Amino acid sequence: MPEEEPTAASSDPAVLLAEMAKKVITSLAELDMPVSAEVRAALRVVPRHLFLPGVPLERAYTLDAIVLKRDETGVSISSVSAPTVIAAMLDQLQVKPGHRILEIGSGGYNASLLQELVGDTGQVVSVDIDPDVVARARQSLTAAGYPDVTVRCADGEFGVTDLAPFDRIIVTVGAWDLPPAWSEQLAEGGRLVVPLRMRGLTRSIVFERENGHLADRGYELCGFVPMQGIGERRERLVSLHGEDIRLRLDDDQQADADGLRAALTTPRAEAWSGTTVGKNTRFDGLHLWLSMALPDFGLLAATKEARKRGLVAHSWGLGIPTALDGASFAYLTFRATSTARERFEFGAYGHGPDAERIAQRMVSHVRSWDGTSLNARITAYPAGTPDEQLPAGALVLNKRRARITISWPDRVDTR
Ligand SMILES: C[S@@+](CC[C@H](N)C(=O)[O-])C[C@H]1O[C@@H](n2cnc3c(N)ncnc32)[C@H](O)[C@@H]1O
Hints:
- By secondary structure, this protein is of the alpha+beta class.
- It folds into two domains: 224 residues, 3-Layer(aba) Sandwich (Rossmann fold), CATH 3.40.50.150; 133 residues.
- It contains twelve helices and 19 strands.
- The structure holds S-adenosylmethionine (SAM).
């Protein structure tokens, strides 16, 4: 067979860029997250491949994040983020011409989009902890025609004091905490967008300052490489089956590793909730709800191989919500309610001596979820804020530099 000739389209960056921008815009619209005309215009002009030297052209224009560096344990620590995530976060940021912007975590691509959005009268400052990333970002920005972006090499935990205040701060690395510099360096009326990890779940949260704390103005599901430097706080990984099945634990969640490993070898119990969702309905709110409602919570991370071998029912990159109790655990599952596979019912698979009880506990929390995804209110207070100043009834996650509260004031009780 003759070798296939590459088509003109597949090797022309302008065509690939137009196709990528179209796909990003369409896929976000399908998720009910339409992006502004300004963000759409910026997406159509910045040549992404110039920020990915050495990466094949077609790959540079896929919708994937492209990993550029891993640490010694194999965890990805530097990447050019997925264009859909970038576009959604830029939309959350609501950039205006003339704004001064701080980006934490460089690469050049997002900074160029920001430069497009602020125009000639604005300023973009980007800071990265890794000198290799900084050097690459500077080179690529110049090559792509954005030499005015300032790139600094420093720990973004401290912001960039001498160039503050900023109208907008965008954190493009997974943060576990909210250091005070980020709110202190926000100008009056400013906006901070940050992928914040709470019990292992990351949400890109829009914060604005309000009476001495940060109040959310919405959030979206996302995943990010973890922050390094002084604010680094990694999840703990408990292996349940070599590298194939691991439990991710965040904040102060504890687990009986030996007991849980043994539990996985026991037959599973199942429980079903009667709570259903339509095929294309968002249910990331259920994950957040379960993470806060269950006293001991983890995320089950399994490889596709483990799923194929029947060791677990699912594998999902962002991790499956799991209830823990001593040497027993139960993870969230679902089944189609009809052969048309239009609706799905949530359930739980339990393992271990208390498999039945813990699976039942998980589904009772599923039943108490109100079916919405974006109605939790997330607020950040400085560390040391006394309990009586936190919203009554809120769940509290104590970080090193902040106390994060999560509450559902608009929640409709479904029980
Ligand atoms: C996902 S990448 C950033 C992507 C980039 N904004 C783009 O345009 O695609 C995350 C970056 O955050 C950087 N980083 C990690 N911890 C940091 C810290 N404490 N301060 C500043 N940068 C940090 C990493 O070196 C990595 O380059």
